[in-house]
Amino acid sequence: MSFIEQLKYRNELLFYFGLANLMAAIVFLVLAYTTNTMLNGVNAWFKPFKFAASTVLYCWAVLWYCYYLKDFNIALFSWTIVLTLGFEVAYIAFRAGRAELSHFNTSTPLAGALFALMGIAATVVTFYTGYVCVLFFTNKFPQLPAYYVWAIRLGLLLFIVFALEGFVMGAAGSHTIGGSDDSHGIPVLNWSKKFGDLRIAHFIGMHALQVLPLASYYLLKNTKAVFLTATLYGLLAVFTYVQASKGISLFKQQANKAAL
């Protein structure tokens, strides 16, 4: 409870927005297992579930870190996050309910405009988070352990780099390399078992925002160890990106073994 109370104390708006997304994620997951709303062979509700769950993790991470920043307009930042990510999750859920694509949907001028608006929303969040990253690199935090500060800095940096990978997928008009976006994926996340999938690197890199600070605070407790872990973590994300770019699925061999 002290963690929950701290979240609420540090930023009440983002706390409740994250909580709303957590409840929405639970509803979407229940719908995914109790309805037959299918899209490309996969239950359409898995996608809003993933986005709502990711929004919870992002909001609660940045509200925790931004509390340490002085002379930062946290109200403007918070409302920007609520409006942009709130729009994304709501629109994806709306399309899921109609068994329609949200991303890469240009079937009508309106659908194309809303897809472009999602891209703008993601860009705003990414660059605003980039500004937060700059503040962490240019400010000193004597009240915090150095290893923890560096974990936040590197987590933010990796988040931004791999959030920008979204532009690659947007330019390609697909997240799958070597084949079409289809239903041949792993459970829930639906990462392709047949072709390269750019979403894997996107997911791994962006969640450095949570992984590195948590690992530094509870396990590593050493600045050199944080740098080493961040390097290895970043290389893992890069590796998955390179594999996907070559059209190679990380799960193809495992899938073949299962078939045998």
Give an account of the 3D structure.
This protein is mainly alpha-helical and 260 residues long. It has two domains: 1-139, no CATH class; 146-260, no CATH class. It has helices at 2-10, 12-34, 46-66, 74-97, 109-138, 146-163, 165-172, 199-206, 208-220, 223-245, 252-259; strands spanning 38-39, 42-43, 176-177, 196-197. Strands 1-2 form a two-stranded antiparallel ribbon. A two-stranded antiparallel sheet has the order 3-4. It is globular, with a radius of gyration of 19 Å.
Chain-wise SSE layout:
Layout (H helix, E strand, L loop, with lengths): L1 H9 L1 H23 L3 E2 L2 E2 L2 H21 L7 H24 L11 H30 L7 H18 L1 H8 L3 E2 L18 E2 L1 H8 L1 H13 L2 H23 L6 H8 L1
Antiparallel strand pairs: 1-2, 3-4
Helix pairs in contact: 1-2, 2-3, 2-4, 3-4, 4-5, 5-6, 6-8, 6-9, 6-10, 8-10, 9-10
Give the overall silhouette.
globular
The biggest beta sheet reads: 2 strands, antiparallel
- Considering DSSP H and I runs of 4 or more, what fraction of the residues is helical? over 70%
| Number of H- or I-type helical stretches | 11
Strand order of the biggest β-sheet: 1-2
